[in-house]
Every structure is written in structure tokens, then in C-alpha cells.
Known about the structure:
By secondary structure, the protein is α/β, with parallel strands linked by helices. It has three domains: 3-85, Arc Repressor Mutant, subunit A; 88-161 and 270-298, Periplasmic binding protein-like II (D-Maltodextrin-Binding Protein, domain 2), CATH 3.40.190; 162-269, D-Maltodextrin-Binding Protein, domain 2 (3-Layer(aba) Sandwich), CATH 3.40.190. It contains ten helices and twelve strands. It has helices spanning 3-15, 18-24, 29-43, 59-86, 99-116, 129-137, 199-209, 227-235, 249-254, 283-298; strands spanning 48-51, 54-57, 91-97, 120-126, 143-146, 155-169, 180-181, 190-194, 219-224, 240-244, 258-262, 268-276. Strand 8, helix 7 and strand 9 (219-224) form a beta-alpha-beta unit. Helix 1 (3-15) crosses helix 3 and helix 2 crosses helix 3. The longest helix is centred in the first third of the chain and has 28 residues, at 59-86. The two termini are 35 Å apart.
Amino acid sequence: xxxxxxxxxxxxxxxxxxxKAAEAVYLTQPTVSNHIQxxxxxxxxxxxxxxxxxxxxxxxGELLFQYAKxxxxxxxxxxHAMEDFSGILRGTLKIGGSSIPGNYMLPGWVGLFKEIYxxxxxxxxxxxxxxIVKAVSEDEIEVGVVGxxxxxxxxxYKGFAKEELVLIVPPDHKWAKKQYVEVTxxxxxxxxxxxxxxxxxMITEQGLLERGITLEKLHIVAEMGSTEAIKQAVAAxxxxxxxxxxxxLHEVKxxxxxxxxxxxxxxFREFYIVHHxxxxxxxxxxxxxxxxxxxxxxxxxxxxxKIA
Length: 308
């Protein structure tokens, strides 16, 4: 029995599909089936019931799944300990970012991190805040950077950067010459929201609610799952929206969008580093977190508390 076979087994168990597991571990489906067949022959038990396109764990499979996850966790912990001992930072670091940090901040930071640690390989996943938090809690990635804190006792959040959300309109909009609008002016205006689970949406909803504006009062014409789609829609005159100032720098410079503030609405937010509370961080993960915190200190955002 090999670690790789247990990794494949766990992925099939998690995804309940041989096809999806094969894609996730970069193997062909017949190879995945062979790994499972070997384990079943070795252990002399049936591990999965195939029901249509789903692979459901048997009682024996459920038992193996618990032990396999612990074995693989210990394997990872052993690797981390040996890397710590050797003092050489190498291997693969899996990180994730919600839409704004994932698309507009982390790519550049990863490049700088790679200059410091050239033997490190960094894998970046981009999703909404809920998706990244879920991936961290389920050990799919080690470190996440998100735009909102979701309550989960298994996780640790560290604030490290702040930004402002801004109202965006096309350059021919009636508000394009203004510096700000009153919050009540938003009510009749066609409005485009990010999807549920987005940190941008959470902060926008919270800021408006503090001023007594609920979603029901707004004229919401669309919900979109990406910042890029919203920028295109606003530029085309579909409606107005509230987005990260980081995300619209290029469009503002090119003149395709105009930004304003919403008077007396708190649209400032903090970005957070998130990692699992009880899992041992790899040396690479510790180094990356400290790298981000050092950037915070360099920007004058306050004292830092490094990961030891």
C-alpha cells in the first residue's frame, strides 16, 4: 500500500466520483480505478458502491477513510518537520484568494515571494470568500486571503491590508461629474451586485444596512459572479455598482469608468490572511504569511505578529 493510493482513495471519497477524482489528481480514470482495485484486493473488502455516476463509501470504506486522512495528515506533518530541520524552503504551497486579492493583489505578491524563495512552487486558487474559507477549513489549501471574516472556530484570521469600495458609473452617466452621491440616491438607480458569498457584497450590504438601506429597497437588475463582468456591464450602461478601488484602477485610468463615494456610508474593508487553527503550517506557508505581514508593516499599517 502506497501513499498515492490513499490520496486517490480519499479524493474519490470526497468527490464521490471516479471521473472528478481523476481530474483532481491528474490521472486517467482507469488509473484511478486500478488504485482503488488494488486497495480492495489488498484489504479484502469492498470500498465503494457504484450507484449510477456516484461512488458511495461502504462501511469498510468509511473506516478506511478516517484512517487514510490521518495517515496523510501525519505524512504532511512529517514533511513539514523535515523541511524545517533542513532549513531549505522548497515544495508546493497551495494558497487561495477571494476575487479581489486573488485577481489583483496575490499574483504580484507571489512573484515577489518567488524571487526570495526560488525553489518554492506556489499554486493559487481564486474563488469567492466563502469558497476560499471552505477550502482552508477542509485542508484543500493552506493559506487564504479574503475580504471578510466568516465565523468558524477552526480558523484563524489575521488582518493585514485595508481598502475602500467605490461606486462606479460609466463616463456618460448623470453622476459622472460628481464626487459623491447621497445613499438615498442609490434606491431608484439600476444596481448590479456581486453574487452571494462575495466579500465585496458582504461589505456593501453591511454598509448600506447601517444607513437603513436594505436590498429590498434597491433596484437590483443583475447579480454577477465576477468583478470583470460587472465592470463590463457598468461600462455598457446596464447599471451602477460598488466594487473594490483596486479592481477598477485600469478602467478609471482609461476613462471607461468613473468612481464616486457614497456619502456617509462605511465602505472600507480589511483583507485577512486565514489558515487552519489546529493544522501545522508548512515552513513555506509560515514564510508566505510572514512575507505578507512584512508588506503590511512596510506600508505603515501597524505592528505585526509573525508566525513562528
